Amino acid sequence: MEIREIDIYNMKGIYESYMVKDFPADELKSLSLIESLMKKKNYKCFGMFHNDELSAYAFLYFNDLNLSFFIDYYAVVGTKRNRGYGSQFLTSLKEKFYYYNGFFLEVENVESAQNEEDRKIREKRIQFYLKNNDMKKTSISSCVTGVDFDILYQPLKKKLDNSFVYNGLKEVYSSIFPKNLYNNIIVNMDEE
């Protein structure tokens, strides 16, 4: 397995071939927004390749202020699922960016699932991250474009600190969303 950074041109192919199928429309940023984010140099796309064939991909926002990164999109290519690639890719990202304090990501909130099938998918996704990758559930939640998320954190150099994650998440959202959308994002941190 090899991890490679993917340029804007090749990212378009991933977007059009995979992302539009892998993510609900209400969670998917436009291709033009992703392109503009990548041009700023702290939003990057990485792929995991096996024999030059894409197995998984991730879009990451690097927050240099607190030495963390945010996984904006993360998916295993449909034909490659249930083979352990998801865990391998996360482990590879942890190894590649070991010098960061940690990283965080959104997972769809289980309580806001639309039906039992949706609930099971969300629970399975959360368990994947918590069980296979030593991630921690934070006391932070967000509502972005009408979708409720819980926030998970993967410590690398810095243990879980909800304030650290909260501030990092707010900085990420303010950087990756246009102002009109950012003003409608809600970020909450429950008292511990």
Structure overview:
The chain has 192 residues and is of the alpha+beta class. The protein has one domain: Gcn5-related N-acetyltransferase (GNAT) (Aminopeptidase, 3-Layer(aba) Sandwich), CATH 3.40.630.30. Helices cover 38% and strands 32% of the residues. It contains six helices and eight strands; from the N terminus they run E-H-H-E-E-E-H-E-H-E-E-H-H-E.
Comma- or semicolon-separated keywords:
Aminopeptidase, eight-stranded mixed beta sheet, 8 strands
CATH class: Alpha Beta
Strand runs, count = 8
Poorly predicted ranges: none
Could you say which structural class the secondary elements and strand pairing correspond to? alpha+beta
Share of residues in strands: 25-35%
Number of helices: 6
Instruction: Please indicate the count of domains.
Output: 1
As a whole number of angstroms, the C-alpha radius of gyration is 16 Å
State the end-to-end distance.
40 Å
Strand count, sense and barrel status of the largest sheet are: 8 strands, mixed
Sheet with the most strands: spatial strand order: 1-2-3-4-5-7-6-8
CATH architecture: 3-Layer(aba) Sandwich
Q: In CATH terms, what is the fold-level topology?
A: Aminopeptidase
SSE string, helix = H, strand = E?
Answer: EHHEEEHEHEEHHE
In CATH, the homologous superfamily goes by the name Gcn5-related N-acetyltransferase (GNAT)
